[in-house]
Write a structure and sequence with these properties.
The complex is a heterodimer of chains A (95) and B (483).
Chain A (H helix, E strand, L loop, with lengths): L3 H10 L6 H18 L34 H5 L5 E2 L2 E2 L8
Antiparallel strand pairs in A: 1-2
Chain B lengths: L8 H10 L4 H19 L2 E4 L1 H16 L11 E5 L26 H8 L3 E6 L33 H8 L6 E5 L5 H7 L2 E4 L19 E6 L2 H11 L18 H4 L8 E5 L9 H16 L3 E5 L7 H16 L17 H12 L2 H14 L4 H25 L2 E5 L14 H5 L6 H6 L3 E8 L5 E7 L5 H20 L1
Parallel strand pairs in B: 2-3, 2-4, 7-8, 7-9
Antiparallel strand pairs in B: 1-3, 4-6, 5-6, 5-10, 9-11, 10-11
The chains are: A mainly alpha (95), B alpha/beta (483).
Chain lengths: 95, 483
């Protein structure tokens, strides 16, 4: 079982702020979902490696050549706030 | 509605080639039909009318000069709104990306353009491709053209609906756990999810990278094969893309039959959750394949019973990590705040909808210290075991058959409990976990005249046999309708 406090804590880790109603709802949902996942515990996986990708593939290397990049002005068109070719965010450190 | 709109892309290609119709005329007809029915169906988020007409003009000019880019030059298509389109809004069905305009095209989009296809617009979807009904779109739900009181399925509901409603001959979607096959089944069209790695994911907004694949909706198996040929193949921009072997013969291969093929029916996919009408219809189609010369065997795949749980651990874990990029810094929504952490938090809390938050929280939980081994690691190991089991099964059979979804399309708001919604994908998720190709074909109607879908699963990179069997069944079922 997962508690409401744990839901709030996990949400914080994911940078989500939940309303009381959301905590209530996700608490109920997650417990139901996690209960279903108990089924997996009975499967013996002691001698099996994990799969991270659906199809086996190898590290892909390429030669270190300068290619074309997207123009800065195009990329910054989507920026919520920019300043002199940088993304601008609220203050991070105290003065 | 002009009858030409019911043509397949292959038929349209011939008419464009012979000069029976021009691309401008064709695009105008589609746009007129879209204008008429979109207020009811709501398959699109953005309709790129002006650009489409300009592109059609250029296409006609190329044909006039005898220099078409391909035989598909001038044929319209629609794209799910998580496929990046240069200069055209790509919202992912989310407030987070409501005003996002990509500065580049996804590789699949680039390939369509290079072949002269005309993009008519971007289609509605469950937010960030998370859902099975298109109800979680931040904008509005799409209605099923076969019965507007029902959902079109999801997450590529808009793309499925616009093909079913003859707004385009074909459309691209994406399939992470059934998001092409499910809606194809609900709307009565064909939905193909190719082998993982065979089609580039570059420029596709990520949900769960190890499962995501571009797939598509068509009204004939031949068209599905044609699209595979058009957009598959190695892409240096996607390190998981694979060099596909010669596919030049794919289109012609769909004419072969099923004689001598061994087809396995997965026993576990005919359990108590399966609607009896769906069951009967799928079984009847299997019988037809048998009469056509296929060797039918019953196969037991115990892992099918735990596929949905395994899928929801892996997909949400990957989603929680993928969606960390939406922080209000570089693009998308930003909700201003005093300090940067509050800005992240407010942006994400207001930008994401209910289902996306649910999956981020679940994914963060299964990856968190103390839970990682119990859930995430365990699921990855089970995934390995599933792949092994499938490899073994595919030594005995050429193809596998299941229903696509346990029921036909349901009504709006009918599945409030997320677990009930998740069950929709019970037969499709396993295919993404192992990375195999699969297709959903309409195989009948239920008592309410809603389409029933059947899923055929193939071996990795053997789209050829998959499409061959699908094409055979398509013909067998067509004959039935004619009789």
């Amino acid at each position: 079982m997962i508690t409401k406090d744990e839901i709030i804590k996990i949400a914080e880790l994911a940078r989500l702020e939940l309303t009381e109603g959301e905590v209530e709802k996700y608490h109920k949902d997650l417990n139901a979902i996690l209960a279903g996942m108990k089924k997996l515990e009975s499967i013996d996986t002691s001698n099996i490696d994990g799969t991270t990708h659906a199809v086996t593939h190898f590290s892909v290397l390429r030669s270190d050549e300068i290619g074309e990049s997207l123009p800065h002005e195009e990329v910054f068109k989507n920026a919520p706030e920019e300043s002199n070719g940088y993304f601008r965010v609220p203050r991070i450190m105290e003065e | 509605m002009d009858k030409i709109l019911t043509n397949t892309a292959t038929e349209l290609s011939k008419k464009l080639e012979s000069g029976e119709i021009t691309s401008v005329q064709l695009v105008a007809k589609y746009l007129e039909h879209i204008e008429e029915i979109e207020p009811t169906i709501k398959a699109f988020i953005t309709i790129t009318k002006e650009q489409a007409l300009r592109d059609a003009q250029a296409s006609d000019q190329r044909r006039k000069e005898g220099k078409p880019l391909s035989k598909w030059d001038g044929i319209p298509i629609a794209l799910k709104d998580n496929l990046s389109t240069k200069g055209v809004k790509t919202t992912c069905g989310s407030l987070m990306l409501e005003n996002y305009i990509p500065p580049y095209d996804a590789t699949v989009v680039e390939r369509l353009k290079n072949n002269g296809l005309i993009i008519l617009g971007k289609t509605n979807m469950d937010e960030f491709a998370m859902g099975s009904s298109t109800e979680s779109s931040a904008f509005y739900p799409t209605r099923n053209p076969k019965n507007i009181s029902k959902v079109p399925g999801g997450s590529s509901g808009g793309s499925a609906a616009c093909v079913a409603a003859y707004e385009v001959p074909w459309a691209l979607g994406t399939d992470t756990g059934g998001s092409v096959r499910g809606p194809a089944s609900f709307c009565g069209v064909i939905g193909l999810k190719p082998t993982y790695g065979s089609v580039s994911r570059y420029g596709v907004v990520s949900y769960a990278s190890s499962l995501d694949q571009v797939g598509w909706f068509t009204r004939s198996v031949g068209d599905a094969a044609a699209l595979f040929q058009l957009i598959s193949g190695y892409d240096p921009k996607d390190s998981t893309s694979v060099k596909v072997e010669d596919i030049s013969s794919l289109e012609s291969s769909v004419t072969g039959g099923v004689e001598g093929l061994t087809i396995g029916v997965i026993k576990e996919c005919f359990g108590e959750e399966l609607n009896p009408q769906v069951c009967r219809s799928v079984r009847a189609s299997v019988e037809k394949l048998k009469e056509a010369g296929a060797n039918i065997v019953e196969i037991s795949l115990p892992f099918a019973d735990i596929a949905i749980e395994t899928y929801y651990i892996i997909s949400t874990a990957e989603a929680s990590s993928n969606l960390a990029r939406f922080d209000g810094v570089r693009y998308g929504l930003r909700v201003p705040a005093e300090d940067v952490v509050s800005m992240f938090t407010k942006t994400r809390s207001q930008g994401f909808g209910e289902e996306v938050k649910r999956r981020i929280i679940l994914g963060t939980h299964v990856l968190s210290a103390g839970n990682y081994d119990k859930y995430y690691r365990k699921a990855q190991k089970i995934r390995t075991a599933m792949k092994k089991e499938f490899t073994k099964v595919f030594e005995q059979v050429d193809l596998l058959i299941t229903p696509t979804t346990p029921t036909t399309a349901f009504g709006f708001g009918e599945k409030q409990d997320p677990l009930h919604m998740y069950i929709t994908d019970i037969y499709t998720v396993i295919v993404n976990l192992i990375g195999a190709p699969a297709i959903s074909l309409p195989c009948g109607l239920d008592k309410e005249s809603m389409p029933i879908g059947l899923q055929i699963i193939g071996k990795h990179f053997d789209e050829k046999t998959l499409l061959q069997a699908a094409h055979t069944l398509e013909n067998l079922l067509d004959q039935e309708v004619e009789m």
